Each structure stands twice: as structure tokens, then as C-alpha cells.
Backbone:
């Protein structure tokens, strides 16, 4: 199994969730994050002073999927989250040794 | 004894007492999440030591028997014994009203020392400053001292007007804030890291409570529920509203956006400026004083970055600048409807303007020197500033053993 | 000049001014975390432009020399010059008291346009609406105009009673809110996404400050510290308390749970309903008016989902519905202890009920048409609504360059 | 009718009404994030049922025609009919003032039952307790009952002094809180898990609103805008300020750090202690009463861990302890400047001390027994406590269907 | 070494932490999350309107363990977090290449 | 590619970010966490009572890097975050199968 993690613009969360459901994904875990990448270096003026703001709020989404679905889920996220502007985020995939469902104690693909 | 006047003074004193917790929110919301409690504790601490200092000797120094026009004899009304035993309600509540002024004035200073002053040093400073700076200056202006109309400096025709505290409160606190900020030095990251307000609704709440309390401050300074009090109320509201517009327009033109911090700061700038002038001008004067107070302070809050003093929450930009503007503006817009003399623009000549400027200068010089001495004395005994480690990890936890918010769980 | 009356009017005007920041918290807490500052800025903006509009011409239009019973001559008291020069404290503070009513009325409207109205459009709207809608309607009811007892529509026996603003304030603002909500259209996700209050303690704080201020609103409308003021105070508290119970019981029965948003809204519904009736009924009348106001408004806030208008924070459900109920209820429960005539249930016949309904209808029709015209004019000049992108990412950042809360760090 | 007195009573009643929402923040901030709404709803619920209970019969039981010195005839002024029809403003607003006292007293109790009491049980408890406990005890002390100067227990020279509610309000509520806490049992994790305040700025806000409202409570208890009211105002401020210092010094010495929760609690402890004594002592008495109230309560809040009762937010440690101290301290520091007799330290002998202790004991015994009976009756009918699951996952969601804060999105 | 990540009901945090200590785990990192899975679709009524609420608050716990302990730690978490109701959560395991202790700069198992 | 995750003292965030930039890292994701390890068992006194506080706030930083950079980035974080006191935190590395840049849809090292 794979764990697909996406760091996206917070206001694309709803679209990504809809895309995941359309892709047949059965569950998602969401949390808050902040980050910078190419977006770094944006300055802003506040109360008459200029600042460099480097950490921009992002949403993190994590999806556990079967090996076979990792690529298509990644594409689904990328296309739903894309606005074409800097700061759109990253999606990465990691191999998972085992998954357990807490409610039943099942393991492996059945637990997804 | 007039029950209507006592009713209004009881109400006014209660309103002004509420201003200091209002200030705690105005300043606390503006500070960072790791130092909001310390910021609020400086206000609550000012209430505690300010009231005690006032009851002990401050009231006597302010309105007691004058010693050379410089200060009142501290023994006149020690522990309010003579006021209390006399049993006169109007005199008694006036001492209470005076306590609330001493408290808010010293609390205002705390805005310039955010995130980095030892709490024990603050408590000592506040106690001493009320006795050695606030009380004498209030004696000069309101207690028959050297800046009063009967004083040695001014004539019968031309003397300073300070209805509710342009010099005594705002210029005084603004200068003290500047001196303390210079003594403490800048915060780590000053001018580089944004240090944005951690909770802007709290800033709005603070501004609202300050405005509400300011009705007691300004209209209560009539010491009666009379025509003057009504005039002060109307001018106060007019100036504060105009100052919001002045500040927001300045921001909109300069930065493209009108901020909520600007609206809240505009309220305070307008109120500061109209404080000395509350009955000295007509509504059109109040409108102009307020609008320009908003513009001037909106421009002035950026100066600290240019000159490199860390007046963290803009005590100088708001209280000193708007306090000076309001004090001087009486010399321009003053009118005798409820005021003492006509200003320059009403054909009264330069006499009033001169009196206002002299009173402001005397206050600035004394506040600067006296605050410097007190600050240095504390610096070289118990120390003024917390360690850099405390400053970075947060003064709330280090000085008060608390963090403001706990996760919901 | 009676110092007791002036004391109470100074206090009342201060209390009513505090209501608008209270509303900023009531509405701000109910809105989402990304638009709370904009919500609060609409209230603070209403204070700024409302006060200035009132001082300039609003007060004259409301209580100046009547032109055909329709509005007061705007030049009568331009910039409050004549009120000020006269030097009469009671008249002066009454103009201040009037300003606070104009401010809160227009601020109430902002609840229906949450998350999506351009701030510049709001500022223009508020300024114009105070002058063209609030001021004339207040002239009709309180300034000797067409809805007054001496007016052309009503008899000497039967005329509308509106002690503190059922028609002028709540029906007026409720209708304007409905019209603006329709002009703006629904928010993205309306009726699908929960859009729950982001900070319920702020809603409670807002309700508390509103209630506190409402004592000035209702008991201050006696324009004296007299028996009527005392009666208004007691009825106000009774109705608000009963309305909490009415709302919570309705929720408990319908949804199984009594919510804090319900308690806060119940407070407001009860206060709205008792506003016109504050001295027109006895405590048992106040108890019934309050309890039913809670029930009616608790049921009415769901209507927007049925009819598809996005009255975001329930200006219609609370202010229009409870304002109408309170206005009409005088026709039922009115009594002459402190009121002008007996209502239907006290054997007074239908005359009062008729007068109340006519006054409500006239207000509804005028408020709807005038608000529509102002709204359309703004829509086709500077535009009413922000872009969808701004709405999604948050109006606070886009319009004010700020987010309400910063992480503690 | 004196308009100044009515103005002050209208103001005072409004101020005291504001205390209960203030308490909602004081307690709500102290509670955990998952139960803040329930905490606040207990205060708002107390306002709702307290006001209705008072208007129906509470006022009659308190000041109606006395039945054996035990309680007033409940039919005397049912639904305030006779007060209202009489049309006497001072009497009318006095009933409103009384309502606000009943409300805050019962609301105080809620601090001891945080996180775990069924909301329906609380609403029933509050309604019944106002009628069966608060109203009779207030009759004893202020309505000419058994603890009054004309009562059966005391002589013409020596009788209990309770200016604004040391026995009626604070000892009464403190004992009731202890009894309810014992009936409910401790919370899961009590004494092991920290359960720190989730929002300390809210605690500060609550303390500020309580203090502000307390001016109405204490100075309003003069029932006039007179010399006594002014004396009460000055003593109230002096004692509260001294109590902050007392509490903070105790913490600094014991724990090494002065906390913001300590400052806020110190405010309340000082205000509680000076409540019965507001005009019975001179400023030096107020200073000592306040300072020791801070010390005693700071020490007392730790007792619950020793004795194992879960008085969650320290109703006992603050209200019972400081209420007892203030009540007894009159016997020590009492003076006849505005008070009724001289205390022990002013050479008045032991008579006053004895009267104060007797009044406190009678109140303790009655409050304990009556609260126990009401609590047991509810326990064995609708039940007092929520399930453990609800307690862990949060009472806000389970009982009110809400969580206090939503993420910004 | 392995990283065991658990998404659980927030009110089971204390039980899970106790179970981990009992299992000899020396450290844990906890953070906030929200998610949906089978639990999706729960509706609620608020202020007279009905809504579908899909993101339910969860706690995330992360534990670094030696390879040999991964399975037993997973079981310990599952049994401590289980209430048997939908929404109980997921536990998954990922292989870790390296761990470093910041304080000392140690690497590998010694750093746990 | 590798994902380097660091749990550090919150007040070292600025130093670590500077070190990462110096090491040529192009982006970072930051979030909040809390945890315990050796630091467990610290007691505190509050309002007259003594408590054991076990969860201490931490910052989590995640950096996606090329395989070759993982070790040097770990060292950079460790040395920037180190204060030498208990609670300094942990840094661990996990292998990543794939990374995608949302803005462009690029994959692999190009997406970093
Ligand atoms: N190397 C990285 N490691 C971890 N997170 C990263 C990395 N680069 C970018 N991110 C995350 O992705 C977000 C968007 O990245 P950014 O570089 O601004 O966009 P883009 O990929 O379009 O250039 C950042 O805010 C950060 O949270
Ligand atoms: N495929 C998934 N990927 C990531 N997280 C998931 C996934 N499925 C479930 N979760 C997480 O586990 C939590 C509980 O899952 P849920 O499906 O409701 O319970 P159950 O496993 O008992 O059916 C969700 O709220 C979500 O945070
Ligand atoms: N085994 C572990 N699994 C996951 N996180 C851990 C583990 N051990 C420590 N941590 C995290 O690292 C932080 C610091 O660890 P700690 O043991 O206190 O420091 P040190 O490594 O210096 O002994 C903890 O607060 C926790 O967040």
C-alpha cells in the first residue's frame, strides 16, 4: 500500500476532496500546515512597514491507497488542486508496510 | 450635594476604571500570542499599584495644599483620611475619579515595552511613576500648580486649556513610553519579523471599551452632569468617528487597504486628540481635530522603523502625536461657547497657541527627565529587561508560568 | 436643566454607542474565521460614517423643522451649530443620543451581507442610508412627522406607539437587510456548507454588550431618569429573559438541544420585541412578548433556506420578525399604566392594533424601495460584491490585508 | 422622586446585570475548551430563569410583607403587579436591581459544577434555588427578616452589617457550590490532569466586567447617588487593588511566579470581601480587607486537592472564604463614619464581631441544608450528572450541539 | 526502524499513551487532524438547517520504533483506541531509513 | 528522493529554516505538534496544585530532498536545532517513491 501526501492551497480542499471521492478513495485525513517553496520572498506592507512573509498557510491531505491506485490518485489531486500559480504545492508517495483498521483490527488492503 | 452630579461622577469613575482593562485588550490583541498575558498583566498591575499609590499619597500630591506650585503636600490627605472623614460625596468620588486617571496614564506606557520588560521592574516603575511624575504634573495643570490659569507663567487672558488630559495624560505617557523604549532597546527581530497582532478582534474590543470609558474620561471631566458634559460627549464622538475615517483613508491611499488595526487605532487617536479640547471647540473643530489626528497618527506609527526605537505598540505614534496635535489645535480652533478663549482661526490671536505650546513643552521636558531617572535607577538595581531566551520562547511562560490559550481537548 | 436627567442621558448615549461594537462581536463571532474582521469593520465603519452623517445633516432631517411631515429641514442644525451655540445640555446630549441610534440601525443591516460585500460599497451605502432612510423615518415617528400622533394619518385616540424603535430601527433595518441580501445574491456553498459560527464566546459577548447597551436604548428613550425609564428597564429585562427561554425550549423540542447561539439570539429577539413596547405594557405583557419573540424568531431563522435568500446572520429572522411582533403586540397587550392606549386584550378595541400595523407597513414599503434604489445605484457604479476568489480565500485578507488570528509563536 | 437617584439606580441595575455575562467569561475562560459553552450557558440560563423567578415571586418573597421574619408573602407583588401599577420609579427600579442580585448569586454557584452537570438539571436547580434559598435569605438580611437590625436575634446596638451581600450573596453561593460539588463528585482526572484555563484573556475580560459591574453592586446598594455611594465606590476600588497585590505576592513567594489567573482571581476576592463592608470601614480598612482577602483566597484555592472535593473553578476558595473574611472583618475594622457601629480594633468591643459571626453561621447552615435537599431531589428525578463519555468527549457538543471555536477556513 | 502513525478518536489519546508506555515506547509525537472514512455522511441540524458534516476531528500519533517492535506497538494502539464504532481510525507503518537525536547527534536505534 | 521530518523545539524554527536555506533546500512544510520523549515527567505548580505535564509543544518540519542530500540536510537540521537540552527532538528520513509539483504536474527530482 501507499501513502499519498499532498500539500495544497487551503481553498482547494473542497475540490480535491470531491476529486478523491470521484476516484473512489474511501477516506482522507486532513490537517493544517504552512510552508514555502518557490513562493518564498513575497513582501507585504502593514502599518507603514514592509515585511517578508515566508510561511504561507497550506492544507495537508493524506490518503492511504492500494499500490495500483497511487499514480491515479496523485494525478487526481494534482489536477484538482492546480491553479497554475506559485504555491500550488506538492504531492508525494511513500510505501506503507502495513495498515490496520482500529475498529476491527483488520490489516492490509482490507483495512483501507 | 447634587444627586445628579454624584450619579454622573460615580458612572464616570466606573467608566474610566474600565478603560484600563480595555487597554489590556487593545495592547494584548496587538502583541504576539506568547506575550499577551504579560501585556495584560502590565495593565492589571497598573490598576493595583496605581490605585494603592493614589490612595496613599498620589491624591494629596495632585490636589493637596500646593508647595510652590510644584506639588501638593503628600500628608494633606494620606490614605484619603481627610476626604473620607469629611463625608462629602462629591469630594470623595472625585478622589476615586482621580485614581482612575492615574491608573490609565501609567498603563498607557506599557505599550512601548511589549515582550521584554521584567514584570517586577514594571510594577516598581508604575508605582514610582504615579507618585513622582503623574501626580505632580496633574497638580501643575489641574491642582492650581504652575501650568494652571492662576500660575506664575501665564496671564489672566492666556493660559493653557487641558480639559481632560492632553498634557497630563497623553503627552506625559507618550514621552515616558519613548524613554522606556530607548532604555530597553529593540526586540529581537524588530523591523525584520512582522510581529503582527495575534488577535485583532481583541484589539477591536479594547478600542470599544476605551471609547466607552472615554465618555467618563471626557464628559466626566466636567465634574457635573451639565451643559459642558453634554458638549464634551458630542465632541468626543464626532472626533473619534472622524479619526477612523482619517486613518482608514490614509491607509487606503498609501497601502491600498483599510485595516481593522487602523480603525481601532483611529478611534484611539481621535479620542486622544479631543481629550484636551473636549469643550474648547465646536463640532466642526472636533471634526477637524479628529480627522487630522487619524491622518497624523497613521503616518507617525511608521517613524519608529525609520529612527530605530522599538515603541512596540505605538504609544508615541498615537498618544504623543495625537496628544500634541489636540493640545496645539485648541490654539487654532478654540472657541468660547464652552471654552476659555478664542483660538487663532477664530480671531483670538496667538496667545492661546503660545500657552498650549509652552504647557506641552514643560510636560515633555519633565516627563523625559523624570522617567529617565526612574528607568535608570531600576535598570541598575533589579534590571529592566528579561533574557533573550525568555524573549524568544515567550515572556508569558517565563514571567507568569502560563500560556494564554490551551488547545481544546 | 435637571442634572439627574442629563446624567441618565449621558449614560444612555454612552451605552447605546457601545451596542455597535457589541454587534460587531455578535455578528463577528457568528461569521467564519476568514471574514470576522470584515464583519466587525462594517460595524466600526457604520460608527464612523453614521456619526459624521448625523452631525452634518441627519439630526436636522430627523428633528429639524418639518417639511410636510416627511423630513426635517437639513439646514436647521447643520453641523449641530444651533444645538451647540444654544448651550442647552439636554438638547445637546439628545443629538448625541440620536447619533447612536442612527449608527446601530445601519450597522444591524450588515448581518445580511456577510462574507461578500465590498468594504467601499458598504461605507457609501451606510452613509447614504443614514441620511435618506433612517433620518426621515425617525422624523415620521419621533420628529412630529406623518407617523406621529399629531400626524395626518392617525386620530387623537389611536396613533402608533413606538417607544424606542420597533419601526424606526428594527423593521427598517430588517427590511433593508433583506433587500441587500437579495441584491447581493447567496454565498458560495449557501445551504450546503455548514458555515458555523467561528467563535461562539464572541457571540455571547456581543449579546451581553447589546443587552447592557439596550438599557440605554430603551430606558434612555424616556429622555429622563423618571418612572417611565424605570418601567422600561424592568420590562426590558423581563422580555429578554423570557425570550431566552422561548428560544431554548423551541430548539430543545425541535432539535433535541438548546444551543448557545440560541441563547444569544434569544436575548436579541426579546430585546427587539420589547423595544417599541417598553413602557406600553405591564410585566406580564413583557413576559409574553419576550417568550413569543423567542419562539417566533427561532422558527423564522430557518426560512432563508426554504426561500433561498442568504440573510447570512439572520437580520430578517431576528430583527424584522421580532420587530414586527413587538410592534403589533402593543395592539394586543398595550395598557395605560405608562402607555398611551389599551390594547385589544385589555378591552381597548382594534384601533391601536390598526395604528401599529399601518405604521409597520408604511415603514416596510419605504425601507424596501429606498434601500433598493440605493443598492442598485451602488451596484451599477462601484459594484456591491467581491469576486468569488476573494470570497473563497477570505474577505479579511483581500479587503483589509489582515487575518484575525495569528498562531502563537 | 429624585432624578439623580433614579439615574444612579438605573445605571447600577444595568451594571449588575452585566456582571453575569462577565462571570460567564471569568468561568468560561477558566474551563477547558470543550466545556466553555456549557459554562457560559449556565450563566445565561441563570439570567433567564433568575429574572423570571424574581419577577414572578422572588421579589415578593424578598421584600414582601414578612411572614414571621422568615420570608415575604409571595402574593404581595406577584408579577410585579403592585410595584408597576403604583408607578413609583424608585420602587420599580429597585425590583429590577433586586433581580440582578438574584441572578448573579445563583450564577456564581455554577463554577463548582464545571464540565459535568446536565444543563436541564442546572436550569431547574437555578429556578428553584432563587425562590427557596436566595429570596428568603435576602429577606432575612435586607427585607426586615430575622437577620435585620429589627430582627428577633439582635439588639438595637449590635446587629449584622451586610451592605451589599457578604452573607446573602457570597457565603450563600459559596456554600451552595460546595454542596453541589460534593453531590456531583469529582471530574475524571481531577487532581491528576492539569485542566488549565483554556483562554486566560477571557478570564481577564470576565474579571474586568465583574469589577465594572461591581460598582453598581456596591455603590448601588446605597439606593441613592449620595455620600455613602461615593464611599462605597472608593473602598471597593481600594480593596480590589490591594487584593491583586495580596494574591500576586502570595504566588510569587510560594510558586516563584505571579500569574494572570491570580490577578483576575485577586480582583474577585477583593471585591467579594469588601462587599459587606463597603461603607462600614475607612480606606485603611478597605486596604487591609482587600490585601488579606487576596492572601487568604490564594491559599484557600489549593484546599480542594487536599480534601478531595472538586470545586472546579473555586467558588468556595474565592466566594466562601473571602465572603466570610469580609463579613467577619467588619467586626474588626468597622467604623461609624458611614457604618453602624465600631469594630473591635476601633474600640467598639466584641458585639459587632459576634453579630457578624452569627449572621454568617445562620446563612451557612440554611444554605447547606436547603441546597442539599434541592440537589438530592434533582439527582433522584432527572439526574444531576452527564455520562462519563460526554464528560470526556466534551459537554459542549453533547448538551448544546456546538463547539466553541471553528477552524478558520 | 519503523514509523508507526495512528489516526484515532481524540478522546482515546490518554488510553493510547498509557498503552504505549506500557509497551515500553520511549517517545511520541502528537498532532491534530481531521478526517473521514466510513464515518462519512453524518448529518446534523443547526439553527433550523440540515448539514452533512464530513470532517471529524482526530488525533494523530507518531511513534518511532525498532523494526521488531512495530507489530506489537500497532496492536497496542489498536486495542487501546478501539471503541468498536465507526470513526475509530487507522494505524499504518512506514520504513525509516535513519533517525537522529537532535540533542546528541546520535543516529540509528540509539537515537530512539 | 527522501522525506526528512524533524520534530524540534518551536523556538529553533528560524535557525533551522536559515540552515536549510544555506544548505540549498528549496522548500519546507511546517506544522504544529506536541510530544514527549526523555523530557517526560516534568512537573509544574499551578494555583497551588502540582501536575505532571507530559506533552510539550514542538514544531514539525518536513523537507523533500534528493537522495544524495538527505544526510547533509539531516546534519544541518541537527546542528541548527541543537541546544543540548532534553526535548531537542528527533529527525528521521523516509524513502519517497514519487514527488509531483501541483502547479506544473512535473514528477521526480524536477518537482522538488
Ligand atoms: N522541498 C520541499 N519539501 C517539503 N515541502 C515543500 C518543498 N517544496 C515545497 N513544499 C511545500 O509546497 C508548498 C508549495 O510549494 P511552492 O514551491 O511554493 O510551489 P511550486 O511547487 O509551485 O513552486 C510550500 O508552501 C511547501 O509547503
Ligand atoms: N484511506 C484513508 N486514508 C487516510 N486516512 C484515512 C483513510 N481512511 C480513513 N482514514 C482516517 O481514519 C479515520 C477513521 O476512519 P473511518 O473509515 O471513519 O473508520 P473505520 O476505519 O472504522 O471505518 C478517518 O477520519 C480518517 O482520518
Ligand atoms: N520514539 C519517538 N517517536 C516519535 N517521536 C518521538 C520519539 N521520541 C521522541 N520523540 C519526539 O521528539 C521530542 C523530543 O524528544 P526527547 O526524548 O524529549 O528528547 P531527547 O531525544 O533529547 O531525549 C519529543 O517531544 C517527541 O515529539
Residues:
Amino acid at each position: 500500500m501507499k501513502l499519498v501526501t499532498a500539500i495544497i492551497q487551503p481553498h482547494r480542499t473542497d475540490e480535491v476532496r470531491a476529486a478523491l471521492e470521484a476516484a473512489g478513495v474511501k477516506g482522507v485525513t486532513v490537517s493544517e500546515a504552512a510552508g514555502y517553496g518557490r513562493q518564498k520572498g513575497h513582501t507585504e506592507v502593514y502599518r507603514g512597514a514592509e515585511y517578508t512573509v515566508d510561511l504561507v498557510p497550506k492544507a495537508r491531505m493524506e490518503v492511504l491507497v492500494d499500490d495500483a491506485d497511487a499514480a491515479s490518485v496523485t494525478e487526481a489531486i494534482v489536477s484538482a488542486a492546480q491553479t497554475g500559480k506559485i504555491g500550488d504545492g506538492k504531492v508525494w508517495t511513500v510505501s506503507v508496510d502495513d495498515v490496520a483498521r482500529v475498529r476491527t483490527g483488520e490489516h492490509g488492503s482490507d483495512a483501507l | 450635594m447634587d444627586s445628579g452630579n454624584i450619579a454622573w461622577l460615580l458612572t464616570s469613575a466606573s467608566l474610566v476604571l474600565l478603560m484600563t482593562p480595555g487597554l489590556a485588550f487593545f495592547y494584548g490583541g496587538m502583541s504576539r500570542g506568547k506575550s499577551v498575558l504579560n501585556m495584560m498583566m502590565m495593565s492589571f498591575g497598573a490598576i493595583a499599584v496605581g490605585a494603592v499609590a493614589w490612595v496613599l499619597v498620589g491624591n494629596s500630591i495632585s490636589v493637596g495644599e500646593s508647595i510652590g506650585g510644584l506639588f501638593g503636600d503628600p500628608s494633606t490627605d494620606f490614605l484619603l483620611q481627610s476626604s473620607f472623614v469629611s463625608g462629602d460625596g462629591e469630594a470623595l468620588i472625585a478622589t476615586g475619579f482621580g485614581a482612575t486617571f492615574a491608573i490609565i496614564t501609567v498603563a498607557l506606557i506599557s505599550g512601548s515595552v511589549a515582550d521584554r520588560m521584567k514584570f517586577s521592574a514594571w510594577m516598581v516603575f508604575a508605582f514610582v511613576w504615579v507618585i513622582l511624575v503623574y501626580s505632580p504634573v496633574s497638580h501643575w495643570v489641574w491642582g492650581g500648580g504652575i501650568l494652571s490659569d492662576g500660575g506664575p507663567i501665564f496671564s489672566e487672558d492666556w493660559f493653557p486649556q487641558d480639559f481632560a488630559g492632553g498634557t497630563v495624560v497623553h503627552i506625559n505617557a507618550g514621552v515616558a513610553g519613548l524613554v522606556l523604549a530607548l532604555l530597553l532597546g529593540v526586540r529581537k527581530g524588530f523591523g525584520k519579523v512582522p510581529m503582527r497582532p495575534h488577535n485583532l478582534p481583541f484589539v477591536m474590543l479594547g478600542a470599544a471599551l476605551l471609547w466607552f470609558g472615554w465618555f467618563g474620561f471626557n464628559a466626566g471631566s466636567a465634574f457635573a452632569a451639565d451643559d459642558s458634559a453634554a458638549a464634551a460627549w458630542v465632541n468626543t464622538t464626532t472626533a473619534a468617528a472622524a479619526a477612523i475615517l482619517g486613518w482608514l483613508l490614509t491607509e487606503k491611499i498609501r497601502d491600498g487597504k483599510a485595516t481593522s488595526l487602523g480603525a481601532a487605532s483611529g478611534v484611539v487617536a481621535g479620542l486622544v486628540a479631543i481629550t484636551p479640547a473636549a469643550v474648547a471647540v465646536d463640532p466642526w473643530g472636533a471634526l477637524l481635530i479628529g480627522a487630522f489626528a487619524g491622518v497624523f497618527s497613521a503616518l507617525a506609527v511608521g517613524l519608529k522603523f525609520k529612527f530605530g526605537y522599538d515603541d512596540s505598540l505605538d504609544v508615541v505614534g498615537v498618544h504623543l502625536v495625537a496628544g500634541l496635535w489636540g493640545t496645539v489645535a485648541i490654539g487654532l480652533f478654540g472657541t468660547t461657547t464652552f471654552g476659555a478663549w478664542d483660538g487663532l482661526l477664530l480671531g483670538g490671536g496667538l496667545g492661546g497657541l503660545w500657552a498650549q505650546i509652552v504647557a506641552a513643552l514643560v510636560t515633555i521636558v519633565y516627563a523625559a527627565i523624570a522617567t529617565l531617572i526612574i528607568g535608570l535607577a531600576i535598570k541598575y538595581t533589579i534590571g529592566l529587561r528579561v533574557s533573550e531566551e525568555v524573549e524568544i520562547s515567550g515572556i508569558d511562560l517565563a514571567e507568569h508560568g502560563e500560556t494564554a490559550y490551551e488547545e481544546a481537548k
